[in-house]
Amino acid sequence: MPSCCSASTTPVPTPARRPLAPAIAPMPPELVDAVTRWVRLLDDPRDIGPLAPGIEAEILYRLLRGPIGPTLRQWAVPDSAVARVRAAARWILAHYAEPLTVDAIAAVAHMSPATPHRHFKAATGMSPLRFQKRLRLQEARRLLLAGDTTATEAARRVGYLSPTQFNREYRGVYGLPPGRDAARVREAVAVTPPPRRPRRRSA
């Protein structure tokens, strides 16, 4: 991203006092066109190597020029509060099944113990503990959908000590208890036909 930031006409911002949280905005036609061309590379894998890097650079460039550009630029500023939050998020991703402490996050983010929670929530929209919980539940759901583990075993593998707490939090996110949710998703996938790929027109 830094190279695209430097190529854009708008300068890279200095670190903000308050990180910019993730944003959502409509896709302009130019960005839709670039993303469409990128997806169509799947029609012929031989085109991916030569063409994908240029299209991906165009997509990033148009994102930076769009309404969420300031947010993306702030994420690219080296040694900013957001960059430190990003390092903490990576660490949580690698250790999501382990107990999470404020001191550990502060050490990874190079912050005092009093500041990571505020910066993390400002940058990601959720607290470190909530972020860890989402990671645990996503991995548990993946294990359940694979069909090779029980809900109790999935809870243990992602770091839950209490199956009751796991069931409660899983239902709070996905709307159903673990077993019923996995069965519903597998059934939906089984009855949904795969999307038809468009035929390439011969020259």
Provide a brief overview of the structure:
With 203 residues, this protein is mostly helical.
Description:
The protein is an all-alpha fold and 203 residues long. The protein folds into 3 domains: 2-76, no CATH class; 81-125; 130-191, Homeodomain-like (Arc Repressor Mutant, subunit A, Orthogonal Bundle). The protein has 11 helices and no strands. The two termini are 37 Å apart.
Q: Keywords, please?
A:
203 residues, mainly alpha
- What does the radius of gyration come to? 21 Å
Overall geometric form: flat
Q: How many strand elements? A: 0
The total domain count is 3
DSSP strand content: under 5%
Element-by-element helix/strand order? HHHHHHHHHHH
First CA to last CA: what distance? 37 Å
Report the total helices. Answer: 11
Summarize the biggest pleated sheet: none
Structural class: mainly alpha
**What's the overall average pLDDT, rounded?**
83
Helix content: 55-70%
Low-confidence stretches: 9-20
Write the layout of secondary structure elements.
Layout: H1 2-7, H2 29-40, H3 48-65, H4 69-76, H5 81-94, H6 102-109, H7 116-124, H8 128-146, H9 151-157, H10 163-174, H11 178-191
